[in-house]
Amino acid sequence: MSKLTKSIVDAATPHEKQFTIWCSELKGFGIFVQPSGSRTYFVDYRNREGVRKRMTISRHGKITAEEARKLAIATLGETVKGRDPAEERIQKRKALTVKELCDRYLAAAEKGLVLGKGDRPKKARPFLFTQNSVNASARASMSAGFRASRGWWISQSGWGSGRACH
Questions:
Q1: Last residue of a domain, one of 74, 93, 112
Q2: What is the C-alpha to C-alpha distance for residues 2 and 153, in angstroms, rounded to an integer?
């Protein structure tokens, strides 16, 4: 067992089964070598409750061994502070996207669940204005893929001209 370097990672020949090469200088840092030849850096740690966790860092080739080591050090540093980086990654993936949030808001407004002045449901005209505002704001801040999906939603819903999506 020695320090994980590019030459050690490149020299590792694939076996019939996945195997692990551990770094001697950084406890919990290693790389998986797959039978296909792909190599993946990871960090192994225990969370606050003492449960063992393993978090993938990245594939070899996308980042270097030194970059992976720096990310592993940062991840292990977060665990010392009592955080659980693997769990945080899972929670981020489960979180609502801006598109989903906008869709939920517009669906609720259409059903009369969004209240306007006097705690009354928004009327059709203000709702159309709200819908166009949400669509225009989201378009300005989101990627092209988000614009395409929003454009489809407007054209299918029958609301507005759809010009805000182009």
A1: 93
A2: 55
If one compares 95 and 9, the residue with the highest pLDDT of the two is 9
Decide if 33 contacts 12 (C-beta within 8 A). Answer: yes
pLDDT digits (tens, 9 = 90+) for 32-56: 999 999 999 999 999 888 899 999 9
Structure tokens at 72: 């592993």
What phi and psi, each to the nearest 5 degrees, are found at residue 150? -70, -40
Which domain CATH number covers 48? 3.30.160.390
pLDDT at 160 over 50: no
Closest CA to 29 of 80, 65, 64, 79: 65
Q: What residues contact 4, with CB distance under 8 A and at least 6 apart? A: 21, 22, 23, 26, 29, 30, 31, 65, 68, 69
Are residues 59 and 80 both part of a single domain? yes
The answer to whether residue 12 is domain-embedded is: yes
Structural domain boundaries enclosing 87: 6-93
